[in-house]
Structures are given as C-alpha cells and as structure tokens.
C-alpha cells in the first residue's frame, strides 16, 4: 500500500438554503480557512470547485479564487476539483494558470473537467455536443502554452496562430488532474497521462475497479503514468467521539447530498433516467446510499484512520477530504480540520 496524501475541500462558496451566508463572508472565510490549513504540513492541497448559473452562487471563477488563496498561504498546494474546461477559452486558461503558478511560487495543481449541465453551456453559447473536442484540443493548447516557444494550433474548436504565452509557469511541469466520472473520462485521462479525481459516489469496490481501468488503459496506450496520482473525493468529519461526529455531520451531509443530487441530476437509475427533485423517494434513497459510502470517514480519529486506510488499499493515492458542508458551526468545522491534520493523517 503506497503513501496516501490528504487534501481538503471542496470549497464551492455556496449560500445554500441550509446555510445562507453573505458572499463577502464566504470568500473572506475561505482565505481564513486556507491560512488555517496552511499551518499543518500534513494537509497537502486545498481544493475548490466550479459551477455556473445556480441559485446559491456556486463559485464561478476558480483561478480568481486561487489567486486569493495563494496570497493567504505559503506552503499548501492549490487545486481545482475541477475547472469546467470545455466552457473556457483554452489559451486564456493557460495564461491565467501560468500567472497563478508564478504568484504561488509553483503550488498549482490544475484540475480540469468536461462539464455536463445544459444551462451552463447554453449560458456561454457553447454547443454541449462539442465539449469533448473543446476539452481535448484545449489540453493540447495548455501543454504547448506551458512549454518553450510559441503556440501554433489549428483545430476544429480553437485556432491559435503563432503566439507566445508569457510568463511561463513557475513549475517546469504543472500537475494536470482530470475529473473522471465514468469509463470514457478515465480512458481520456489515461491517454493524457493525467492524474484523476474520481467521484464521491463510488464504493470501495467501484473505486478499485476504476483505478484498475485507468492503469489498464494507460498500458494499452503505452503511456507512462508512474507520476500520476489516483484521487477521490470523500466527505468526512472528525470529532472526539463517533456519536458526536454523527450528530454533527450526518444531518448536514444528507441535506447537502440530497440538494446536490436533486439539483445537478448527475445520478441516473438503471434505465439511464436522471434522479431529481421530481422523484423524491428515489432521491432520498440515493442520498442515503451516498451517506453510507461516506460514513467510513465520519467519526473519531481512529475510525477515520481505518476508513482512509481502506481507501488507500484500493490503489488511491490522494483523498480530497470533504469536510466543508457550509451549514455547520465554524468552530466545530475548524476543530474537525485540526483533528484531521493532527490525529488522523499522521496515523494513516
């Protein structure tokens, strides 16, 4: 079993029905949270996530936020889980990411996702059907922009005629992560040789299967992925006792999962039909199943250590420990992070 890294997140800056907040406070608190996490060397990365045109103000501008985190911290790496790359101009992302990497002294982990919500693509006047082409061409452009020399690229979606991107990133090789939900994105990530971020909905058996699929595909493509990290999002909460952790976290986690499952409609039934708010019984059952998946990483430190060891045994090498529920008292949330950093991670 290899070494397991722990990052924290995912900060989405939402003012939800369960925890309505003024956005000025949410963004200010993120900077404070980042500085708090930065003092613990055991926490490797802080992760943010992006969406657009949702009622609760879900963070729409990850690299802007990441710049604030860079200024508020000195050590911790800064990751996107993930930037909805198909909805952006690839060359502009490359420029902003390079500036962020310089600003942070080489602490950027650039996480990219395909995106899937129709109204996000409609809002940006982008045909959802071409998102894969935009993603793959965009990754090629970013790679060329980060390398020495000018970018010359002529594709179906982007045309970049002989431009030099400066500054280059601080890092000689910026880590690229791909949010991989399903077999096709996993194959795409393996072909790229990118690290992956797997879904929070996966059981341990499913997690192991998808990691195995990644390595099988990389071998088929002849890609060296020895440097790649296998990441997964797991919701978690650490308290002094199991009872305290369950009492604090489970109601908020269930509300959060139900709202996101219903609103984003990213889970489907056996017929491939989305499970949303129009199917409340199915939605409740789906939320309960997800709570059960995450229950292994909710509890006293010793229990959470065991849960993380089980995840590491699947071949996973990086866990985004999702302690940010947005509806729990701040003092308890910071205590959970402290216990994670001081009592859990050192004992994995």
From TrEMBL:
Signal peptide: none annotated. Residues 44-318 form the Luciferase-like domain. It comes from the Bacteria. The keyword Oxidoreductase applies. Keywords: Monooxygenase, Oxidoreductase. GO terms for cellular component: cytosol. GO terms for molecular function: monooxygenase activity; oxidoreductase activity, acting on paired donors, with incorporation or reduction of molecular oxygen. The keyword Hydrolase does not apply. InterPro entries: Bact_Lucif_Oxidored, Luciferase-like_dom, Luciferase-like_sf. This is Alkanesulfonate monooxygenase SsuD/methylene tetrahydromethanopterin reductase-like flavin-dependent oxidoreductase (Luciferase family). The lineage of its organism: Bacteria, Bacillati, Actinomycetota, Actinomycetes, Micrococcales.
């Amino acid at each position: 079993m290899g070494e397991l890294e722990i990052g924290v997140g995912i900060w989405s800056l939402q003012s939800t029905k369960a925890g309505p907040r003024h956005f000025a406070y949410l963004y200010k608190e993120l900077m404070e949270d980042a500085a708090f996490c930065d003092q613990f060397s055991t926490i490797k990365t802080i992760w943010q996530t992006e969406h657009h045109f949702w009622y609760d103000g879900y963070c729409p501008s990850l690299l802007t936020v990441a710049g604030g985190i860079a200024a508020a911290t000195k050590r911790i790496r800064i990751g996107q889980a993930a930037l909805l790359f198909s909805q952006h101009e690839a060359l502009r992302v490359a420029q902003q990411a390079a500036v962020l990497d310089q600003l942070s002294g080489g602490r950027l982990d650039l996480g990219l996702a395909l995106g899937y919500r129709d109204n996000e693509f409609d809002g940006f006047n982008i045909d959802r059907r071409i998102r894969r082409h935009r993603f793959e061409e965009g990754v090629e452009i970013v790679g060329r922009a980060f390398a020495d020399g000018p970018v010359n690229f002529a594709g179906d979606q982007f045309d970049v005629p002989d431009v030099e991107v400066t500054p280059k990133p601080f890092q000689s090789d910026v880590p690229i992560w791909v949010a991989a939900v399903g077999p096709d994105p996993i194959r795409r990530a393996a072909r790229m040789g990118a690290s992956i971020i797997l879904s929070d909905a996966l059981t341990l058996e499913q997690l192991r299967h998808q990691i195995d699929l990644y390595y099988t595909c990389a071998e088929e493509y002849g890609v060296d992925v020895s440097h790649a990290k296998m990441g997964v999002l797991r919701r978690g909460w650490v308290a002094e006792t199991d009872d305290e952790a369950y009492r604090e976290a489970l109601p908020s986690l269930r509300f959060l999962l139900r709202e996101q499952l219903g609103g984003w409609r990213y889970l489907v039934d056996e017929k491939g039909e989305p499970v949303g708010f129009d199917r409340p019984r199915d939605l409740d059952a789906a939320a309960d199943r997800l709570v059960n998946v995450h229950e292994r990483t909710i509890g006293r430190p010793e229990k959470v250590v065991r849960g993380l060891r089980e995840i590491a045994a699947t071949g996973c090498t990086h866990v985004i420990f999702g302690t940010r529920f947005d509806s729990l008292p701040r003092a308890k949330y910071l205590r959970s992070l402290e216990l994670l950093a001081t009592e859990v991670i050192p004992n994995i």
